[in-house]
Amino acid sequence: MVAIVDSGSTKSDWVILDDFKKVFLKTETIGFNPNFINRELIAPEIQKNSNLILVKNSITKVFFYGSGCGVEKNRETIEAELKKVFDKAKIIVKEDLMAAAYAAYKGKPAIVCILGTGSNSCYFDGKEVKIELPSLGFLMGDEGSGSAIGKQLVRRYFMKKLPADLHQEFETDYKLTIEDALKNMYHAPRPNAYLADFNKFVVERKDHPYFVNMVFEEMKSFFEYQVMPYQEANDAEINFIGSIAYYYENILRSVAEELNLNVGHVVQKPIESLVDYHIKYIL
Question: In sequence order, which residues have a C-beta less than 8 Å from that of residue 252 and are 6 or more positions away?
Fold first, then answer.
């Protein structure tokens, strides 16, 4: 059996293929971004999933694609922790951009972007992934991401920048104190996922003129920082992977149109396309 995993900062999608390359199992765990999660929690979190534990001894390969895995040290961390559970398997760990590139590939070169809890971009010609820009994380980067939009919302709430109706609704829904916010942002694990979770509030009101403008500016920042530096940006199709791109697709396309850029397709969850790519090109 082969396990294919697409792991973001919030959650991980798992697909287990049998020996005939057919889907045997689909399941989820929390996300395993080594920049935010204590490594000692990774194996226990996987072991909480009874479906994975039932098949773990039959798995001979694990293809793990994860946010935060662009750095060798982090890849080694994930590999070591996965090996504790799947001790009979060969573990292959790559960054999430590789998964996005594979999942978004439709036979022609394209710029591929991730817009989920975090954000990132690359250029994929069908064989090689070109990454010209570093991922600076949610403190300095992640423009257009769930954590960036959540950060904007929380900041504007506390600084009394939201319109009266949105301020009141946010206050009623969350009853958020500055003490709780600071505790979760600076002293709790996975602060980027904590901020991204506030997107539920924005998505439910994404047609509100204030949020249309706020998200528009955040997406514009994403294109300016993470897409336009690529020399291929003006000619190549730009494809998106991730829930944030999916939820705000109309705004995303409006920004691209203003910048004379060509957005192709937007995929909410890449796991199925990622599995198809492995069956066709890798396994």
Answer: 115, 219, 240, 245, 263, 266
Measured CA distances, 62 to 14, 65, 95, 267 (Å): 10, 10, 14, 23
Per-residue b or e along 85-114, where b marks 16 or more CB atoms closer than 10 Å to that residue's CB:
bbeebebebbbbbbbbbbbbbeeebbbbbb
Instruction: Give the integer Cα–Cα distance in Å for 156 and 70.
Output: 32
pLDDT at 270 over 90: no
The pLDDT of 91-110, averaged and rounded, is 88
Residue 49: exposed, middle, or buried by beta-carbon count in 10 A (0-12, 13-18, 19+)? middle
**β-strand pairing of 23-30 with 61-66:** unpaired
Q: Left (φ > 0), alpha (ψ -120 to 50) or beta: where does 29 sit? A: beta
Q: Which amino acid is at 7?
A: S
Helix axes 146-158, 178-186, angle to 10 degrees: 150
pLDDT for 106 equals 79
Residues 6+ apart with CB under 8 A from 181: 154, 158
